Amino acid sequence: MTPVLSAIVVLHAVATLFMTGLIWFVQVVHYPLFARVGRDGFTAYSEAHQRLTTLVVGPAMLVEAVTAALIVVLRPEGVSGLLAWAGLALLGVIWMSTAFLQVPLHGRLAAGFTQEACDALVSTNWLRTVAWTIRSGIVVLILLQLATRAGGAAPAPA
């Protein structure tokens, strides 16, 4: 595998694993705590939340999307096409969920807190949480396929 393709796979793994950890934090801690912000300050909180969250997740999501597409197109030898395509398909699910479920719910919450919108945000976000968790499994399997292909197992921890 070329150094460029290796770098693409590593960047992809880092972005996916980062986003998986982040989405679990958001799902279990962050979104449920929206209800404790208070109605008076919620609009300002929500606007700041959306702006600052975009600074953190935007670059990682873009790196993940570009590298997922490159892995499908340039598929490294030894990497299952099924895994590469499944990972890309799950990324499509995540992006569609973000665009059509979570972003509109954040818009509703930016207009003023409602428990209904908050509950919908938490419940619909499980789709992204599960999809990113499965993607992490796929990334680990791809890394294992590449390690096996390279003629040995991954190095043992020090």
The overall number of domains is: 1
Q: What value does the average pLDDT take?
A: 94
Strand content: under 5%
Order of helices and strands: HHHH
Distinct helical segment count: 4
The gyration radius over C-alpha positions equals: 18 Å
Shape: elongated
Report the uncertain regions.
none
**How does the helix and strand content classify structurally?**
mainly alpha
Q: Please give the number of β-strands.
A: 0
Let me know the largest β-sheet: none
The oligomeric status of these chains comes to single chain
- Tell me the distance between the termini: 25 Å
Could you estimate the helical fraction of the residues in percent?
over 70%
Quick recap:
Helix content is 83%, strand content 0%. With 158 residues, the protein is mainly alpha-helical.
